[in-house]
Amino acid sequence: MIKSMTGFGRGESRDSVRHFVVEIKSVNHRYNDIIIKMPKHLNYIEDRIRKHIKNKISRGRVEVYINLEYMDDSTAKVQVDLPLAKSYKEAIEMLNEKLDIRDKITIDLIAKFPDVIKIEKQEEDEDEVWNCLKNGLEEAINKLIEMRIREGQQLAKDIKMRAENIMDIVKAIEIRSPEVVLEYKNKLKNRIEELLGDNYELDESRLANEVAFFADKSNIDEEIVRLYSHINQLISALDSDVPVGRRLDFLIQEMNREANTIGSKASDIIIKNKVVELKSEIEKIREQIQNIE
């Protein structure tokens, strides 16, 4: 079952101290790019978060937003830097004296200066924080994956339909290919007779050699066989339980290469038109698989 790389999930978890809200969204990306935005004082669990996500999601740009709200202020402590406050007060008094200003120095004024009053979070137990966060993270990831699966099912349905269209086009090219050689032989024979008249005796062996050369030059049997193989592999991969985005991308590249080769070998307008249809369907699939994990 294939998955899209686009999705969104939200989860919550709490204990007696903290309340986490986790939101995850993912979009297309060639690799597994994880971006985590959370309170700075939780940076020590970033590796755990990243590893947990990578175990569940193998491809895509994943953005994680973690919001933390404490249930009470027991983890916060107000710190006052008295020496720094005293230095600020002395500096203001010196300015008053030097500039002959008699403004009052208030607590409000001193408290506004940087780092005089700081709120520090008390050190928390890493395992305790992680155990609380993990539940919300897991919920968000599961909802994200559910959305990716739903969209992946729609993508697989569309790709299978287009793969069947490609199969029909390749079959039409396969049927047409031997007819082209026969038509070439008849046209060449008629042209020779038209130019040289009835008195000229046609050399059947030379004609056969010319037709054989044309047939060999325009032969597309190998390309058709490989296209059938690539199509069957593509359809089979859509039912796989493992990420197949990169494999599908490779198959589409190979299919496009075979289509180009057929187009370059073909001198028949019907086959050339079929190649245009073929490449159009391949390109539509290529666009779709850019969003597959």
TrEMBL record:
Domain Endoribonuclease YicC-like C-terminal: 174-293
UniProt entry tagged with the keyword NAD: no
Ranges of residues in domain Endoribonuclease YicC-like N-terminal: 2-156
N-terminal signal peptide: none
InterPro entries for this protein: YicC-like_C, YicC-like_N, YicC/YloC-like
Molecular function GO labels: hydrolase activity; RNA endonuclease activity
Cofactor(s) named in the record: a divalent metal cation
Pfam families: YicC-like_C, YicC-like_N
Keywords, comma-separated and alphabetical: Endonuclease, Hydrolase, Nuclease
Matches recorded under NCBIfam families: YicC/YloC family endoribonuclease
Family: Belongs to the YicC/YloC family.
Protein's name in the database: Stress-induced protein
Species this protein is from: Caloranaerobacter azorensis H53214
